[in-house]
Amino acid sequence: MSHTAHIPSHRKPRQRASKSALRAGVAGGVLSTIAVAGAAGPAQADPVTQTIEMPTITSGFSTAVAASAQATQQVALDLETQADEDAAAEKAAKTAKKAHAEAVRKAEAKKKAEAAAKAKAEAEAKERAERASRTSERTTLSASSGSSDSSGGSASAPSSSSNVSGSAASIVAFAKAQVGDAYVPGGTGPNSWDCSGLVQAAYRTAGIDLPRVSQSQSTFGTQVSLDNLQPGDILYWGSAGSAYHVAIYVGGGEFVGAQNSNTGTVQRSLDYDRPTGAVRVL
Asked: Which residues contact 249 (CB under 8 A, 6 or more apart)?
């Protein structure tokens, strides 16, 4: 046996090394390919991420929103302007209406004032004429009364006021001359009376002093029947001693009295307000 028989051959190990190199080369190529692919992969992903951005669309949307907001603001401004104009028009209409009403009121007030002034002037003229007439009538009555008293007076007292003479004539004439005068509580003349003030003043023309109030006047004298009245008799309403109203019988079924603030001094029929009783002083 050769002493070299156990020495291994070097061919086979070289073949194995070749295969290992080949395998290593293949593996390296694959790994290189994978590495290249891996490197190429992320490089392709970046542009996709960048192309998602939409600057043009976002810009257009912002413009549209801004335009819409401006349009809304303009509409609101227009509505506010219209509301102000409507309010101003309404205020002007109210002011004009108020001014018209005030003008009408002033015109009516002026018309009423003129009418009142005219009525007052007419009433004053009428009152002056009546006063002048009363003064003349009183002067005549005073003269005739003095003449009658100096001659002894009249023995009879007829019921008709046109034929009354003496003291009764003076009382009746005075009472009639006051017709139209005002009624004033507590009035004693010369142009305003209450009921007892008028009766007292009428009797004073005949020289007779009566009590001031109606209660006392209703018992001053002799009680007479209403069917047997004579001019100059005192009529009373209520009971004797507590009468609430008095007047003077002037003949012809009529009386003169200061009735109330509405009628003043009037001449009325006994049927207008039937008295309760009467007293005769003369």
From this structure: 229, 230, 231, 232, 233, 234, 235, 255, 278
Question: What is the per-residue pLDDT across 77-116, written as a single tens digit (0 to 9) for each?
Answer: 888 888 888 888 889 888 888 888 888 888 878 877 777 6
Q: Residue 7 falls within a domain, yes or no?
A: no
Could you tell me the residue range of the domain that residue 84 belongs to? 58-152
| Judgement on whether residues 162 and 268 belong to the same structural domain of the protein | yes
**DSSP codes of every residue in 110-133:** HHHHHHHHHHHHHHHHHHHHHHHH
Residue (of 210, 189, 69, 62) closest to 138 by Cα position: 189
Torsion sign over Cα 157, 163, 166, 170: positive
Is 196 in contact with 213 (CB distance < 8 Å)?
yes
Same domain? For 198 and 88 the reply is no
81 and 115 co-located in one domain:
yes
R_g of the chain, CA atoms, integer Å:
66
Task: Report pLDDT digits (tens) over 166-175.
Answer: 889 999 999 9
125 and 163 share one domain: no
* Number of domains the chain contains: 2
